[in-house]
Amino acid sequence: MKQAKSTSASKAKPRAAKSKSTRKKAPSVDNPGKVLKRSRYSKAETYAIFQRFHADNPEPEGELDYVNAYTLLVAVVLSAQATDVGVNRATRHLFEIADTPQKMVALGEDKVREEIRTIGLFKTKAKNVILLSEQLIRDHGGEVPENREALEKLPGVGRKTANVVLNIFFGHPTIAVDTHLFRLGNRIGIAPGKTPLDVEKAMEKAVPTEFSLHAHHWLILHGRYICKARKPECRRCVIYDLCKSPEKEKFDAVPEIAVRTRAQIERESTK
Ligand code: SF4
């Protein structure tokens, strides 16, 4: 699975990085802080941001391992309050022995619990995996439904999980708002909102149609690896010169990754 491209750091020097004590707390679902009424960006500016993400990483991918729609669904359910790396470590063997709802039910809750015991909330998650597998067999012939409403009726599956499955497996242009996406929407002010649903709606409105399929991945990867909660790595940011966040670190020059990607887009547009 891919992760955000490693980007060479610019030689640009920080002018006045904020000290830890004065740095604003990153917006989080529990504490969104003061939420903007609307996006800080015009349509053209938003387009330029997604053009950058696209040029930098044309085919972004999620980081959870899976072999079919069912194992993706289970992996996403397991990933709540856990890292993708930790989930992959736990599911490697589990999916070898149970890659369908029928096999999972046959395995039983105790064995599933044992397989995923390294993941947080493993007892509840094991229970949900069995319950959702039984429900898939009973209501959907053992298939994962390509429908948000039906997905959300499954135990342990909320809107975010449904959106991830719809986007990654079925190719719907859904935006699953996790902690990274929520922070990014508010911190850079591209899709401000008090709740994950507000950010999801604002993001759906903001993202240009041609970028809507991959927007979810670009934003999550950007939030996870670059625009981090504790301290954004602005020096490695591909949208540095476009970003209007008050938290942006000030440099004397635009970081090399942003300059290079901007030049690449200009070159491609004149072809
Ligand atoms: S410039 Fe800094 S604050 Fe703005 S998006 Fe990039 S990493 Fe985040």
Summarize the structure.
The chain has 271 residues and is mainly alpha-helical. It contains twelve helices and no strands. It binds iron/sulfur cluster (SF4).
Please provide a written account of the structure:
The chain is mainly alpha-helical. It has two domains: 111 residues, Helix-hairpin-Helix base-excision DNA repair enzymes (C-terminal) (Endonuclease Iii, domain 2, Orthogonal Bundle), CATH 1.10.1670; 100 residues, Endonuclease III, domain 1 (Orthogonal Bundle), CATH 1.10.340.30. It has twelve helices and no strands. α1 packs across α12, α9 crosses α10 and α9 packs across α11. The radius of gyration is 20 Å and the shape is elongated. The N terminus is likely disordered. The structure holds iron/sulfur cluster. The site of iron/sulfur cluster has 13 residues, from loops.
Defining key terms:
single chain; 271 residues; mainly alpha; Endonuclease III, domain 1; 49% helix; disordered N terminus; binds iron/sulfur cluster
Structural class: mainly alpha
The low-pLDDT segments are 1-14, 16-21
What is the end-to-end distance? 31 Å
Spatial shape: elongated
Order of helices and strands: HHHHHHHHHHHH
Q: Strand portion, in percent? A: under 5%
